[in-house]
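Recall that a protein's primary structure is simply its ordered list of amino acids. Everything else, from secondary elements to tertiary packing, is in principle encoded there. The following example makes that idea concrete.
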Amino acid sequence: MTARIQKGKLAIAKELYDFIENEALPGSGLDSETYWKNFEQVVVDLSPKNKALLAKREDLQAKIDEWHRNNKFELEAYKAFLTEIGYLLPEVEDFKISTENVDEEIALLAGPQLVVPVRNARYCLNAANARWGSLYDALYGFDVIPEEDGAEKGKGYNPVRGEKVIAFAKNFLNETFPLANGSHADATKYTVEHNALVVTLKDGSTTTLAHPAQFVGYNGEAAAPNEIVFKNNGLHVIVEIDATSPIGQTDAAGVKDLVLEAAVTTIQDLEDSIAAVDAEEKVEGYRNWLGLMRGTLEESIAKNGKTVTRSLNKDRTHKNLIGGVTSIHGRSLMLLRNVGHLMTNPAILVDGAEIYEGIMDALVTPLLSFADIKGENEIKNSRKGSMYIVKPKMHGPEEVAFAVELFERAEQALGLPAKTLKIGIMDEERRTSVNLKNCIAQAKDRTIFINTGFMDRTGDEIHTFMEAGPFVRKGEVKSQIWFPAYENRNVMVGLKAGLRGKAQIGKGMWPKPDMLLDMYKTKTEHPEAGASCAWVPSPAGAVIHAIHYHQINVASRQQDLLATEALPLDDLLTPPLAKDTNWSEEEKTKELENNCQGILGYVVRWVDLGVGCSKVLDINNVGLMEDRATLRISSQHVANWLRHGVVTRAQVEEVMQRMAKIVDEQNANDPLYTPMSNDFENNIAFQAASDLIFKGGEQPSGYTEPLLHAARLKLKGYTGD
C-alpha cells in the first residue's frame, strides 16, 4: 500500500510529496498551497487532451493497418490515403524560428552531446564535467591507438603506447593549429611575447601559428606558461605544460596533455536511459537534477581504499591578449529530457487514476530549476535564464502544440516568465518526420533543438508498417531509401526554418562505447551532414568526437547545405519491406538470435535492477549501448517476422530460451543478477521480454514502456493502491 498525501484531487505518494515540500519548494518563493492548487488545475485541464491525442494515435494506426491488409503498397495511392485520414498534412508557409535567450552552446557552438541517466549521480556529474577532457587519456584508454607493435594498454603505464598517443596528439595540433614553419612535434618551448605565441623548434629557430588568431590566451608566466589556449571553430584546446610531470618530462617542450573542449552540451535523461516506474525512482532522478541546477550535487565513491568526492567543476579562466582575464564555462550546458505523452505513473493519482507522467515532469522539473533560471546559484547552467527541455516521442504537430501548451501552463503555475521553458523536438516518430516543418512551426518561439532519434524512429517505422509485409533484416533497414531521406530532411527542414545560429540540429548515438576507432573513422558524417551536435556514449567518446568539429566547420557546412534541395518526401514514405523472403533457415535463426539476445540482455537488467541504459554484450560478446529505443527495434522486428510467417512462434520460443542461458552466462559474475533460465515460466523479466515480442503488434506505437513498467512494478510488489 502506497502512503499518500491528499491535496485536492491529487493523491501524492508520500516520498514525492516530502521531496517537493522539504527539498524543492524551500527557497523557490512558492508556497505549498499555491503550488499544489495550480498543479491540480493543470492536471485536470490537460489530462483529457493528452488522452484524446493518444486515442488519435491508435485510431490512425488502426486505419493504416486496415489499409495495408487490403492494399498492396503503391506510393501514390498510399500518399492519397495518408492525406485523406489527416496523417500527412499540407505544409505550412515558410517561417523562421524566433526563440530568444538561448545560451551560445546551443545557438552557436557545434560539438558532441552526451546523454546520461539522471538517476545515477556519478554519471550525471561525469557528464556535466565532460565539457573538458584529456585527449591523452581518451587515446590511451581506448582503441583509437591500436594495441600492436608493443602498444598494449597493460596494467601500468606503457611508454610505447604513450609515444603513439603523443604522436597522435601532436599531429592533431599540426592539422588544427598549424605552425607557420615546422611541426608541433619538434617544439622545444612555447612562450608568449608581446601577446603573440612564439614556438621554439629543436633546430633553434622560432615560429608562430600559421593563423595567429587561433591563439587566444595562456596561464602562468608569459616566458614560461603552464597553459596555452587555442580556439578553432568556436572550440577551445588547451596545451598543458609541466616539465616536472611524468609525461611532461618526456616531452621536449614539457607538454603533459591536451585538454579539449568536448561535450559542449549534455542531455540529463528522465526518459529512455532510466527505469523510473514509481515515486521512489522518479524522486532519485528529480533530486539529482535539483542538485545539478543548484550546483550542489556531490557523489562520494570509494577508490583504491580512499573516498573520492565528485562535484561540479568550476569555470575555467585564462589570461587573454588584451591584458584581462577570460572566463570559460566549466561544465557542459545541460538539457533535461522529460518523458513523452504516453505513460502514466503511480507517483500521483488524480481522482484515483495515475497521472500522465509527461504532465508531472512539466510541473516538477522547472520547479527544480528555479535557482538556475533565476540566477541564484554560483555554479550556473544557463546564463540566459532559460530551461531546456527535450521532448521525445511526439507524433505530429498537434502533439508538439500540446507540449507547448503544457509548458505555457507550467510557467503560469510556477510564476515563471513566458517562454522560459524551451523545447527540443525529437524527430523520432514517423508522423513527426513527414510533417516536421509543421511541428517546428507549432513551437517556433521555443524551439532550441531538433534531432534524428533514428533508433526509436526505426521502431516506429516497423510498427507503422506492421501489416504491410515483412521487413528486411535489421542490419539492412538503414540501407533502404527511407533512411537517408529521414536524416537529410531533418537537417534541411531545420535549416530552412532558421535554426542555424539559433538552435541545435542533432544526430543520433554511437552505439559501441568501447569501439572509438570506428567512431573516429565514421562519425565525421554527422557534422558533414550539417548537424551541430551528435550523441556520444561517454566522456572519452566526446573527446574523440570533438576532433571532428575541428576538422569540419559546421556553420559553413550548414550555409552550403542551404543552397541545396532536400531529398524527396517520396523516399521517406517508402517502407523498408523485403523484396523477397527467401532467407535460409540459418540466416533466419541468426537474425532471431541477434534480436532475442539483445532484448533479453537489456530487459533483465531493466526489470530486475532498474538499469535503464546498459552496455549489453551481444551474441558476439561485443558491448553495445542498449536502451528502450534499441529494444523497440528488436522486439518490433521479431513481431513483424512472426506476423508474416517468416518465423514461427515455436522457433522464437526456442531461441529465447537458448539466448536466456547465454545472457545468464554473460552475467554470471554479477552478484546482483538473477538467472532467467532456472524458471522460465515464473521469471518476470523473461516473461516481459517474451511479451514484448508476442504482444509487440498490439503495443501502442510499438513502445516498450507499458510492458516494462508493469513488469518492474510487479517485481517491486506494487499491485495498485
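DSSP finds 25 helices and 26 strands in the chain. The chain has a mean pLDDT of 97.
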